[in-house]
Fold this sequence. Notes:
The complex is a heterodimer. Chain A is α/β, with parallel strands linked by helices. Chain A folds into 2 domains: 10-224, P-loop containing nucleotide triphosphate hydrolases (Rossmann fold, 3-Layer(aba) Sandwich), CATH 3.40.50; 228-271. Chain A is built from 10 helices and 13 strands. Chain A has helices spanning 48-56, 78-81, 99-107, 116-122, 138-150, 168-183, 195-201, 219-226, 249-260, 274-281, and strands at 10-19, 22-32, 37-41, 63-68, 84-87, 112-114, 156-160, 187-192, 204-209, 212-217, 230-235, 241-246, 268-270. The longest helix of chain A has 16 residues, at 168-183. In chain B, helix 1 packs across helix 5 (115-144), helix 5 (115-144) packs across helix 6 and helix 6 (153-177) packs parallel to helix 10 (251-272).
Amino acid sequence: MTTHANELAVDVRGLRKQYGDVTAVDGIDLGIRRGEVFGLLGPNGAGKSTTVEILQGNRTRDGGEVSVLGSDPATGTRAWRSRVGIVWQDESAPAELTVRETVRHFARYYPRSRDPEEVIGLVGLEAKAGSRIKALSGGQRRRLDVALGVIGGPELLLLDEPTTGFDPAARRQFWDLIRLLADEGTTILLTTHYLEEAEALADRLAVVAKGQVVAEGEPAVLRERYGTEATVVWTEPDGVTRTERTATPTRTVAGLMHRFDGEIPGLKVTRPTLEDVYLRLTGQEDAR
Amino acid sequence: MTTTAVRTRTETPAGRLPGAWGLGLQRGALEIKQFFRQRDQVVFTFAFPVVFLFLFASIFSDDVKGAGITASQLYVPAMMAAGIMSTSFQSLGISIAIERDEKVLRRLRGTPMPAAAYFLGKIWLVLVTGLLETAILLLVGTTLYDVDLPSDASHWFDLAWIFVLGLTACALLGIAVSSVPKSGKSASSVVVLPFLVLQFISGVYIAIDTIPDWMLNIGALFPLKWMCQGLRGVFLPDSAQILEQTGSWELGKVALVLGAWCVGGLVLCLLTFRWKNRREG
């Protein structure tokens, strides 16, 4: 891990992927530093999953340069795969085996695996270690998915919408686990369509819409950069509600004060939340 | 950076990737464990050829004219061959298609497990199930239908190589055919039909001297006909050779065809095996 300290863990340039006539990924650039938690945020169908699948070496690309831990995933060797952990979205673990049997077995695939019991504890499945996988709840299966993703002690962990279907408590526990792995130095890329999750976990984010990165940076910086415009709302004398988006709300209000000569009916000045920024960036504003 | 968890790691010597052979054994043990934990699958896998043997050998039990055997005796090696093919070709063809559909294969592909370890694990599984199936049919055949156990070492040896070559060829064909169905749901229909047809034209259900030559010639392109023929050579008296197309067991040719199918099946697997469904690109 120390030898390539300055190299990017994930370096993507001009990535493109086409499904028939549909362009799923339309020239994405990403640079993820080692040890960083990077969030890929975007609505369903934005191209997040396709991007992650290409990084996993699980999907071919139609264009662009991709380097993951210094290798092209399309030609990933066994040694390369042993350094990349994947947390899948689907329940594909062997139903008839127990949690312990499965985690122990997967540990054998790797040259430097973590201790299976420790990993089972890490994901909070100690009490279920002896249960068959078919007897687990959906949330417990997702935890097993995470266990199988980290059992090899990966340098880079790729998670595609890891908390979809979690209840709020399970989501918080999962976040703690991600933070723990990040503290250990694991580079983490996660996709999500939950803004809250991206904000809670990611050091940096890229917002993806229609196959392109529409914004990138630290969550707070993003909010500042794209959230400077305030919204001023008031009611005209004829009862019509007017809305104006402006970088200088004070001037707008001053103008209105002058026009109304005193109180402005229904006046409201709001600063956008990160969610507003996100919805505007991804063109989903009207969906609210 | 704060380290909140103690990292314990199990390292292979020099951090080297574990070998395919050892992992194949591990996978084999796991496959066998999974198989035997599914009770209904176990019961039906083993019962199927036994029930068919019982039906056919009881319905057709007359003496076969001029061959010195009964029709029941003829069905014992036939059902053994079919049993070997069902535990290998049919069960792998269906189960791998389902594993592909349920993304079990994709998950494995995301680990450093070598592909060979997966195939080896499947071969170990069918070796165990095939051996059990053959033993059960042998038990039924010898107790109910007047078939004798191989009389000498050379006949036991013939049984062993026919079993190993036949099973391997059929297992590889099963792995190859698993890529044909578009989904796990359609797998059993896609795999069972060709197997059923082969059983009719290879001398499993219908005695070899009753099948039209042109059908038998098509059957002769595939391993099942040769497995049946070889096993008749193991279990039937030489007087029954008269029923064969050429009047002989042709054991040399059996070995040649089955061996060729092992090689061809392997090539077919390597060329066609897919870790994902076709629609997943």
